[in-house]
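Hello again, I could really use a second opinion on something today. For a while now I've been wondering how a particular protein folds. Please have a think about how the structure follows from the sequence. Here's the protein in full, and shout if anything looks odd to you:

***
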Amino acid sequence: MSETVEKKKRIFSGIQPSGNITIGNYYGALKNWTQMQDEYESIYCVVDLHAITVRQEPAKLRNKTRELVALYIATGLDPVKNIIYPQSHVRQHAELAWILGCFTYMGELNRMTQFKDKSAKNESNINAGLYTYPVLMAADILLFQTDVVPIGADQKQHLELARDIAQRFNHTLSDTFTIPEPYFGKVGARIMSLQDPTSKMSKSDANPNATLSLLDEPNILTNKIKRAVTDSVGVINYTNEQPGVKNLLDLYCCGTGDSIEEALAFFEGKNYGQLKASVAEVTVNELKPIQDEFHRLMKDKKYLDDIIHTNSERASFLAEKTLRKVKKKVGFIV
């Protein structure tokens, strides 16, 4: 009797190739992805279509896209086990987004908080793409019959919209899309700004001292951590009343794998300077092998371009299966 092989669930996620990828992106997303690649059928996209909702320099966008593919691999994502590709290489993303836009209500898009936030920051370029961005995000997810989507709290609203659109389409035209479920990362899913520890660390932060880039050199990482905002309490506690210290402890635990309790025991009786020195050492040690591998990969443009083209073909094959089904359901000749 042959054994039945259980089908792996499919996971999809992506990061924009804009700004500098931070240690928050790494601990909150990339590191989790590497730990999930044997458990799931994984698709990880560089979402360059989303990036152009804000004006980009074309040459810089191309470079950032290739760099992000290299960073995905350098952090430990196997480009054979996982499908790693730029979103713009798979035309089905944009095609499905148009169709799903016809199943999305204006009221739903009007409620999207990210549109309001981004519009406030880009008053000179409030474009239609910025407004319909959540529909493209829904298409990204639904295109691959995704079971699980790793998200942060700020993306919860977008995933809920994707679920609503999928359920509406299924109800109107019969079952077509898998309804995706969220996956929330554990410790380190929310690394905060070093200069404003009440706000999430952001790769678009105008203050370079607020973020730790994955590609910052060791001395830069160390100096940024030394300048991190703490408080006047002078005691190392893990409480919301001491957000700067709490954030440093999160960074330490993400790098060491220690629990908060273990970290607090280790730092008992020590001062903030000693805490920062330990966080800097752990962070530099965590990022050095990633940086070394990234720089090695970036010297091999042919290898990266081969990965991009091969994986884009793999993604396109899966995407077309869904898109043909959708086109047929809505009444197009296929």
About this structure: The longest strand covers residues 10-15. The chain has a mean pLDDT of 93. Residues 301-330 form the longest helix (30 residues).
